[in-house]
Amino acid sequence: MSAREGALEVLTVCRTRGAWADAALGSRLEALSPADAALCSRIVYGVIQNETLLDFYLSGFCSQKLERLQPPLADILRIGAYQILFLDRVPDSAAVHTSVELAKNAKRGAAAGLINAVLRRLCREKNALPAVPDCDPVRYLAIRYSHPKWLVKRLLALLGREGAEAFLTVGNSQPPTAAQINTCRFDTDHVLCGLETAGVQTEMHPWLSDCILLSGTGSLERLQSFQDGALYIQDPAARLAVLAAGAVPGNRILDMCAAPGGKSFAAAIAMENQGEILACDLHENKLKRIQEGAERLQLTCIQTAAADGRTCRPEWRDAFDIVLVDAPCSGLGILRKKPDIRRRKPDDLFALPVVQSALLENAANYVRPGGTLLYSTCTILPEENEQVTDAFLGVHSDFSRETFHLPGPIGEVAGQVTLWPHLHNTDGFYICRMTRRGSV
Fold first, then answer.
1. pLDDT per residue over 67-98, tens digit each?
2. b/e 346-364 (16+ beta carbons within 10 angstroms → b)
3. Is 329 labeled as catalytic in the residue annotation?
4. Has this prediction a pTM greater than 0.70?
5. What Rg, from alpha-carbon coordinates, does the chain have?
6. Which of 14, 123, 378, 432 is catalytic?
7. Which of 139, 148, 297, 323 is deepest in the core (most CB within 10 A)?
8. Same CATH fold, 237-436 and 3-128?
9. Over the stretch 291-331, which tens digit does the pLDDT of each residue have?
10. CATH second-level architecture of 177-233?
11. What CATH class has 3-128?
């Protein structure tokens, strides 16, 4: 299987079965060389990130509407067009030839001529492509950055034209992989040295300590530093949420929606592996991943339990110093990492605040007097963030937002903050710290 064949398979599975791109890539990447695996991933994510714009250009060269082409011809055209317009290292001739071969291999040989003609014309005219009409800002931004119109409208309302365009631009970028150092067992300089010896390009995060930005990693699981438990993968925003909670050695912490475990790992390291963390998830199969991560990192203070975060466990009432609620959400803050989130419909999001509120309501039972309730999401929509915590505080007079401090450009926070990719170079993320009145 070639990189382009793998990319076409993944795009087909995503389109026909509703699969997520990262999950669909999975085993297919293992069958490819590192170079082909990188190209396959880049094509998949690039096509999804730029699909509306690619279709805008292709529609000018194709006599048939793309949606009327026999599957998977439209995706073959997008794969070719993406390489021609976005991948400088791929010769135009190679992009055209391999796309024609994809059509033949897909038993669409009769359409090979169409693929060839459209992509060759795109090659000839790629430096004089028509501009996206700018008379309607919603339509312009939706096409130019390949985001749904409903989201563009929300961003314009939240950020204005300049801010919305900056957010959308970052949403189509490739962020570096952020790794947090397991300082319970390893020195950061020692880990840096080991990674560089392995050929990994490293850069210290500019304002978050013990955080390394990685590129050229290949398979992370193959790195000796990863296998030794020297690091774990986590965006700075998620670690900032744990910093906001203020975990210290000896705490008892409940991580209600813990999978895949990053916040539990960050809390355990902040606690110097002293205390107790109960990492929960509704699905038992997800707990295995948390357990494996804790064992690899040798974080013995983490235990796991299957639990529905909306159902009260009386034995946990008033039992925890910190309760973390990283609630299920729309995920609109991680579009640059999971571009297929943009395919979600607004109707899919209506039920989320109900779930988020139920989780927060139940979590309040578990916070001891004087303890901390930390609510977070990886989205930027107010109805999933401050509107949820406002409603919670409106009926829980024993809780109030508490000021906290975060490093770098964020500084002092008056109880809640939304992190933005284009402003903070993190995932889009909401963090709210609340304290229960009273004392132990």
1. 888 889 999 999 999 999 999 999 999 999 99
2. eeebeebbebbbebbebbb
3. no
4. yes
5. 24
6. 378
7. 323
8. no
9. 999 999 999 999 999 999 999 999 999 999 999 999 999 99
10. 2-Layer Sandwich (3.30)
11. mainly alpha
